[in-house]
Every structure is written in C-alpha cells, then in structure tokens.
Design brief:
It is a multi-pass membrane protein. The protein is 72% helix and 0% strand. The chain contains 27 helices and no strands. Helix 5 runs parallel beside helix 8. It is globular and about 70 Å long.
C-alpha cells in the first residue's frame, strides 16, 4: 500500500509541476540563468522531505531529480527525462572521481564477502566477547577506530562498520547507533586532523583568494589556526563519547537503543527485514576461520591504502614527504588500487591457510559486490541530484540571500547558517565550500574582520550537511557500513546533528563579539553538554526500566 501511495504521489507531483513551470521555448533548453530563484531549492527540499516522510530513499531522489530536470527544461516532461538520464550517466560515469568511488564501494563489498565466507566476523566476535567486557568499551573502540582512520571519509565509513559490527551486535548496540558513530568520525574527523585529502582541497580553494587579495598567508597554517573555531565537528565527535559512556540518549536514537537492549531488533524491521550488509547471514561459512581471517585483511587494507595514497601523491618519486603525499594524493584512484590489491592478496591468504578455496572466494566476491547494489544506486542518484542542483544554482541562490549591509559581528553566524542549509540541501560539503569560501574570505577582508572564524563557519556548515543530509554520499555509505536502513540512520542521527549545529551557531554568534577562540570553544562545549542533558530529560524514552537505561 505504501509503494502505491508513493508512486501516486510522484506521478501527481510531476504532472502538477509540468503544468506549473512556465514552458520556455517549448521545452528547448536556453542559456541558463545564474540561478532559478525559489525553484532552485525545490528539488533537494522535495527529495529530503519525501525520503523522511515515506522512508523510501530511491523514489524520493528520483522525484527530486525529475523535478529539477523539469525546471531546467521549462516543464517539458520528455525533455526532462532525457536531461535526467543524461545527467545520471554523466555524473555516475565521471571517470575522475564518482565512478572510481562506485568501484571502490563494490570492491569493498567483495572484500567483506570474502571475509564473511571465511567466517572472520563471527570468529572475531567470539574473540571480542572474551576481551571487550562492556558495551561502553565496544562503543569507545568503534569511535577510536573511526578517529584513527582519518585520511579519507569514504574509507572510514566502509571499514569501521565492517570491523566492529560483530562486536557491537554482541553487546546489543543498535545499527542506528553504530552508523551514527561511523558517520560522526568520517567527515568531521577529516576536517579536524590536518593530515587528510580534505585539508588539501580546502587549501586549494584558499590559495587563489589569498593571492587575489594580497594576503601573505600560508593556507596550511591558516587551516591549523582555524581548527579551534571549527565548532560543529568538535561537538559531534564529542557527542559520540558523551552518549557512549552515559545514558543521555534522546529522540529516535533513544528508542532505537532501548529496542536493541530489549532484544527487539538491532534495526527498524518495519523499514526492511534485511538491511545492507546482512545479506551474508545465509552464506555458507568456513569451519576453519578464526579472528585473524578478519583482522589481517582489514589491517592489510589500511596499510595498502596508505601506500597507494602516498604513491599517487608523489612520495616514491621523491616529490613530497609521506604525510604531504597522502594529503595531496589522488584518493579516489588510491581507494580502487588499494581495494583491488587487498582483494587479490586476501584470496591468496585464505587459499594458503586452507580456509577458503580460490573458487569459493570468487563466488564470495560476486555476492559481496551484489550486497552493495543499494548503496551504488543511492550514491548515483544522490550525485545526480547534486549535479542538477549545481545547474539550478541552488547554492548561489541561497548565498545571494545574504545582505551586503548586515553587521560585522553577524558574519560568522550567517556564513555558518547559510553554508549548513546549502550543504544539507545539496548533500555535499566540497561543492558547498567551492561556493562559500570565495564568498567568506572576500567578505572578511572587505569588512576588516578576522578570516579564521569566517573560514571555520563555512567548514562547519559544510560538515553539518555532509554528516546528516539524506542525500550525502557519506551518510549513505555510513548507513551501508553500519548495516542500518538508510532512512533510520538519517532519522536517528538528525536530532543529534541539529543539537550540535544549534550550539555551533551560538558559538559563532559569540565569536562576533568576543574574539578568544579557546574561551568560546569551551563555552560552546559546555552549552552543548547542558543542552544534551536537558533534551535527555525532556525527550528521553521512559518505556524501559532504569536498569536497562543504565546499560545505555
């Protein structure tokens, strides 16, 4: 019944928009304006709202894409379909980045398939049960591994869940909580640790602006000095620790955790009976597998990946030091190379140990790749709607709303709010930064204010959208890595993300009056903790006993 309602809604929406959007030249595309005004924010808002309301992501993204394509083609349904399909093919098939990420996702699924065939997760879970004695410790180790894998967010998302899902499952940690930890230690940590591909990208955006405005500044030094102002990543990373060692859960996450503790399911089975990653439950497992059959491939993947990143960054050619090479690496290429090499070596490792034959490994490779099909579809559609939004000028329209006459003290606060809205609507931090950093730096220079809070506000806002938008690629990969239904992951972590965003907004507002980063940083963290405590008291679940709550 739900599917029929979704289809009916999609058809009615497209027909209404077909009549409402003015036909420009009988559907023939003309030279696009800089942005399409309110129409430019309609597709992402529609896709996000539909995905939350219907709990169905794929059809919601399709509706958003079609609506955007209809706006671009003047309401002509046939031209809109052609536009949508061409954008999908071009975006997903982009050889420089997107297609390589799709390949990496499928390859990592194949690695997970082989590890499952070797019975590695179950054996590792038995080992962990003997050595990890508490639920809180399992959550902390998950957080710690996420923090340590800081060099790339995609790699982080897919590796942490694979490694520690057997452990968290044994302690009845909900898949929503696991996905939240994965997501919170992906993009946020990448911006806090100044040795990642993210830092190199931000520096590449700052350099031409520094030259244009004759600012004798080193972009890397500026980035490091900006970190104390980068409130949102700090808060959301601390949120994981706070909720891991206390019972201060609230909202949908509290319900998910209490449901898991009561043994009523690790995920919301009303959404799906089999979330991503659980397709291996019925797979035939080796009786010879041990914990080492999971640990060795994952450690090997990390080491090989770092070597590949250093190679693509010029380390072995003597062009850069190791960390500099990792920061400037072609990470998408390194991910594909590293996963492919790991796949081959893992098959050989299992064969030599007599755990899994080569033939059986190949069957597991195919089944593992199949398990990632939902993630591949959602990623492709998310990139497509992002590309549509770029053509519509969504980011430019939102940023144009900013007035030229607002006071200097409001600059960091306004930049954060606008960037957060754009990133949430488009599902991309990098694309949003490409729009907002060229606005933030000239604005700070013109108004003669410190550029550090302004840059930090843009970075924080971008991380917020990347972290929790339903159409963000890292959000999608985190739900896949945590084997959690995507929409449950979005619904459960969104209140936490909004809490951190609200506290961050207050921090940037105070920064406009009081330029002392450490003091403002400490105040923002204290405000955040108090807010979490209050929300827990008001919005925490009361349907379980105090003994069960203490376990959380």
């Amino acid at each position: 019944m739900r599917i029929k309602k979704i289809i009916l809604f999609c058809v009615v929406t497209l027909l209404v928009l077909s009549a409402a959007i003015p036909v420009m030249g009988n559907g023939e595309e003309k030279k696009a304006p800089e942005h399409y005004g309110f129409w430019s924010i309609l597709p992402p808002l529609l896709a996000i709202s539909l995905s939350i309301i219907t709990k169905e992501v794929l059809s919601s993204l399709v509706v958003g894409i079609m609506v955007g394509a209809m706006i671009l083609t003047g309401g002509n349904l046939i031209k809109a379909f052609e536009k949508a399909m061409e954008t999908l093919i071009t975006t997903a098939g982009d050889p420089s980045w997107n297609f390589r990420v799709l390949m990496f996702t499928a390859l990592l699924g194949s690695i997970i398939g082989m590890i499952s065939r070797a019975n590695g997760p179950q054996a590792f879970g038995r080992w962990a049960e003997k050595n990890i004695k508490s639920r809180s410790l399992s959550l902390f180790i998950t957080w710690l591994l996420g923090v340590l894998i800081f060099m790339d967010d995609y790699f982080n998302c897919m590796t942490v869940g694979t490694a520690l899902r057997p452990v968290t499952d044994r302690f009845r940690v909900s898949r929503a909580k696991l996905s939240f930890i994965i997501d919170s230690t992906a993009a946020p940590v990448c911006t806090l640790v100044p040795i990642s591909t993210w830092v190199a990208y931000v520096a590449s955006l700052m350099i031409p602006l520094f030259e244009q405005y004759n600012l004798n500044l080193n972009p890397y030094t500026v980035y490091v000095q900006m970190i104390p102002y980068d409130f949102y990543p700090w808060l959301i990373v601390l949120m994981v620790l706070l909720t891991s060692f206390t019972n201060l859960e609230y909202g949908p996450m509290a319900r998910a955790e209490y449901r898991a503790l009561a043994g009523k399911g690790l995920w919301d089975e009303s959404i799906t009976k089999t979330p991503p990653g659980d397709e291996f439950e019925s797979m035939e497992k080796s009786e010879k597998g041990s914990a080492i059959d999971m640990v060795v491939p994952l450690i090997g993947l990390i080491v090989i990946m770092l070597i590949c990143m250093a190679y693509t960054g010029g380390f072995f050619d003597g062009k850069a030091g190791f960390f500099e090479a990792v920061m400037n690496s072609d990470s998408a290429t390194a991910l594909v190379w590293g996963a492919t090499i790991t796949l081959i070596l893992t098959a050989c490792f299992y064969s030599l140990r007599g755990v899994v034959r080569i033939k059986d490994s190949m069957e597991a490779v195919i089944q593992g790749a199949k398990s990632m099909m939902v993630a591949l579809f959602v990623l492709s559609l998310a990139w497509t709607i992002g590309s549509i939004c770029k053509e519509l000028g969504t980011g430019l329209y939102v940023s144009s709303i900013m007035s030229d006459t607002f006071p200097a003290w409001a600059v960091p606060f306004t930049l954060f709010v606008l960037t957060a809205f754009i990133a949430f609507s488009t599902g991309t931090s990098w694309g949003t930064w490409a729009i907002m950093i060229p606005i933030a730096i000239p604005l700070a220079v013109t108004m003669k204010i410190d550029i550090l809070p302004s840059i930090a506000a843009v970075l924080s806002g971008g991380v917020f959208g990347d972290h929790c938008s339903p159409i963000s690629d890292t959000t999608i990969m985190s739900s896949t890595g945590g084997a959690c239904p995507h929409i449950e992951h979005v619904n459960t972590q969104l209140p936490y993300a909004l809490t951190a965003a609200a506290a961050s907004a207050v921090g940037f507002l105070i920064t406009g009056f009081f330029d002392h980063p450490i003091a403002v940083w400490l105040f923002t963290i204290a405000l955040f903790f108090v807010t979490v405590f209050i929300l827990h008291r008001v919005w925490g679940s009361t349907s379980f006993t105090e003994e069960q709550k203490q376990e959380v």
